[in-house]
Amino acid sequence: MKSGKMKLFFTSAAGILILVIVWFSTYGMNKTIDQTVSVDVYKDHDWSKITSSVKISGNLKKTLFSASFVGTFALDAYEPSCRDGVEAKIDWQDGCQTIQFYYAGDFSRLDVKMIDINQDMDHMMVVLNDGTIITSLDDESLFGTSSHRP
């Protein structure tokens, strides 16, 4: 009698666990992001920096195997990302991040060559095709030491 109840308990627990795993891998967790991140912008080749910001506002969805963000990702130092109606989609999969901007019916990477951003969206580095680096990392993290720059 006891072994039948134990077997039923463990079978029920396993079934519930499987349902939770399937739900997380399919639907995940949604989180609203609304923040402004202070960044440094390195332009040209003299590595002088200016201070700027990135306005992030939208929905972050995390599933068991991936995460994605859809919303505003306005880099103040890069005007095309700040236009009215521009939205971004950032995907995290297999340790890589990709970004696509949507504006007036078109999907484009704009001039973003590379993006590296954590899922909390508070540490990032964006490299544009012209070599401009937009980063929330400090000089020491970015260049190794604060006095040595490439």
Outline the structure in words.
It is a single chain. The protein is α+β, with helices and mostly antiparallel strands and 150 residues long. The protein is built from two helices and nine strands. Strands 6-5-4-3-2-1-9-8-7 form a nine-stranded antiparallel beta sheet, with no helix packed on it. The protein is elongated, with a radius of gyration of 21 Å. The N and C termini lie far apart (74 Å).
The proportion of residues forming helix, as a percent range, comes to 10-25%
- Compressed to H and E, one letter per element, the order equals HEEEEEEEEEH
Enumerate how many helices there are, as a single number: 2
* Radius of gyration, whole Å: 21 Å
Biggest sheet statistics: 9 strands, antiparallel
What's the short story on this structure?
With 150 residues, the chain is α+β, with helices and mostly antiparallel strands. The chain has helices at residues 2-26, 139-143, and strands at residues 29-42, 49-62, 67-75, 87-93, 96-103, 106-108, 112-117, 124-128, 133-135.
